[in-house]
Amino acid sequence: MESNLLLVTQSGSVDALYSLIEEDPCILQKVDDLPFIHTPLHEASSTGKMDLAMELMVLKPSFAKKLNNNGFSPLHLAVKNQQTELASELVKFDPSLVRIRGRGGMTALHIVAKKGDVDLLTELLRACPKSIRDANANGETALHVAVINKRYEELQVLTGWMQRGRQKDDGSTEKHVLNRGDRNGNTALHLAAHENDHKGVKQLLKCMSLNRNIKNKAGMTALDVLQDNGSHVNKATEKLIEISGGKTGESLSEVEKMSVFLIKPVTFREYCSTGIARYRSQTSDGTREALLVITALIITATYQSAAQDIREVSDIKGAILEYVCQWGFNTAAFLLSIVLTFILLPAGKAYTWWYIFIAGPLVCSYWTLIYVKYQPLLFYFIYTPVAMGLLIYLIVFYVRWKRSRQEKVPKTKTELISERNETMV
């Protein structure tokens, strides 16, 4: 950076900056052309020149994403030099600055978690919530850094932020960050256990999404790492991990490698679940919504039909039509609508279990209504064809799965010889 520009930056005068630009309109562009340089914004951010820094953000926003020769952005320098107010203004102007990786892959969030400042940490998270997923060159998130540096208030802010997230991807973010391993496979819980840090372990164990039994690359769980301290192990911490479900690596079953899993033949259950998943992914949102409306109407109509009082039928023909055809087809439509609604649900265990809790009592109520209306013998007579139809469908589906697994039978030796002779002719 030119000496006159450096002097103006150190003075913090906006008027002096524009005087230089008037003399040389390309003075800021010359700085911007270099890939790594200590720009005027770097200098203003590190020294707390608020007015000049924000003016430079307007004139040259690209300065904010540039690293200096030491691998730091202006936001990094503002955080390192405790220019809290200026750092907050920078991220308000451009929230994406929080995710800029500097030296060692460190973001501003990593630096705050290391140095400590709960208010600034909260500001950065509010400005850019996804920054909590970012890891440095060692694979460490801000959660790792807070545990390593025993920043308990910052640790509480990070875990509290993740547990209170209500956006679409916040659940997966919480699981990802809490259970992410660094370069050596150590989660934040591993690191806290290694340091015999009772307070850190206790705070992490409050998180429901934390996996207590993840193994690092050495095959050790957090409990193994804690017990590796030998006679210095904190017994209270050890008991705390065990009570929360933590186990040693030896007591856990070996995790099956993905390659071993893929080599195995596809089971019937996997065949069914894969077919449902493919149908869901191929169904557009408009089609799904239309089908869900139709199934809801069918379920409502068939259930109301089952709840109506039975009619008096005098002749046998009318009884067959009433009992067998109507109630048999009514039940088939009801059950198929229940199944189709389940298939159309978005993927996820939460949707599945909620649907089971809701649809299960509904199906039981339907069957109870029918059973009360008719004598047991007539009840079984009506629904035997329905059960048989469902069984036949499952058998056909199972046969299709078996046929898809069958390998082609190799040709006999005589057939191979005859084919070779034909090609030679």
Automatic annotation (TrEMBL):
Ranges: ANK repeats: 70-92, 184-217
Transmembrane regions listed in the UniProt entry: 327-345, 352-372, 378-399
Keywords carried by this UniProt record: ANK repeat, Membrane, Transmembrane, Transmembrane helix
Keyword Oxidoreductase part of the UniProt annotation: no
Pfam families for the chain: Ank, Ank_2
Gene3D superfamilies listed in its UniProt record: Ankyrin repeat-containing domain
Name the record gives this protein: Uncharacterized protein
